[in-house]
Amino acid sequence: MMKYLKILSLLSIVALQSCLAADEEPVAVAPLTGSVVDVAVGGPTEPNQVWIDLSDYKNAATNTRTSWDLGFYTGDAFRVVINGSIAMTVAKIPNATDINLVKESDVTALKTEAQVGTFSAANMQYVDNPNGSFLTQTTGIAAIKENDAENPIYLVNLGRDLPSSNNIGAGSVSLSGAARGWKKIQILRSQNGYKIRYADVAATTYQEYLITKDTEYNFSYFNLKTGAPVKVQPKKKKWDLAFTTFTNEVFSAPTTSAGSYFYADFIVTNTLDGVGVYQVSAGGNLEQAYNAFKLSDVDQSKFIFNDQRALGDKWRTTTGTPDIPQPFVYSDRFFVLKDTEGFYFKLRFNAMKDKNGNRGYSNFEFDPL
């Protein structure tokens, strides 16, 4: 009888597995052991954005950061983000109602204002909210309205190309090549997504493209130069943290904004899908503090779920210190991360340079808790 029950149980499992659709994805399972990860940032021009799921870290997704310009949200709201990894900006063109009639003289003044790194607090209006709260932001591109006539025409600064040479001095980065130019755009709603009208500033006719909301992803991405969609982020809940260059807000004093500024060696977390992070002080012995930290030590009250910069630049210094003038990774801290599936990990960062001192070669290790 017992042998019969075992056979029946085995047949039931086989039958259940055979009922799964061929394209059905398995449930994410946290790794049983941690690992050390080399991140393919690409050297001192930092050409790549790298999206990492700690439960599947060997299959990190990578894209060239110039591969996209606009990200169209696929949820219920109609919001559009710009590519902060190439220092893009966007500005509403005053009194413009017909994209075909906008000409160079209408935007001359805007071109000097809609720039990253001017050390003016006013330029924050031209970029997305750095904390990632694009659904409620009052900067960048406004929510897309149902009434076409209510949707403004924007001047888009396409940011900067990648530098032509990766031969940069040790300890330094070179993030910005030639200017990628300007476009004028207007974004409308369509039946299952968005309609974008875009053209060169001096053009008297526009091009149009329909962008469908693919709800497997958080954003549908579009390249204004090629006029084509592009895949960037992995599917929802399939990434936890991303290494990228980043447009952040910089301060000249603790409460005095100096506007938008372009950062190297930055990490964003997937707050849209529930990733939270907090920093743990290691005191004077990182190895001991990191190894001793266990699941029961996790402090739920410290997780930051509402700011994608929770890890951000807190893992390294790009200016060094009087004792160590070169950029380096902090050795007095590590981080705790709760991923999209609710698993907990501890992370420590080991490097941001290769053995020759070249930037853009990040390395970290993690362990599940």
From TrEMBL:
Q: What Pfam families does the entry give?
A: HmuY
Tell me yes or no: is Amino-acid biosynthesis among this UniProt entry's keywords.
no
Q: Which InterPro entries match?
A: HmuY
Question: Where is the signal peptide, in residue numbers?
Answer: 1-21
UniProt keywords, alphabetically: Signal
What protein name does the entry list?
Answer: HmuY protein
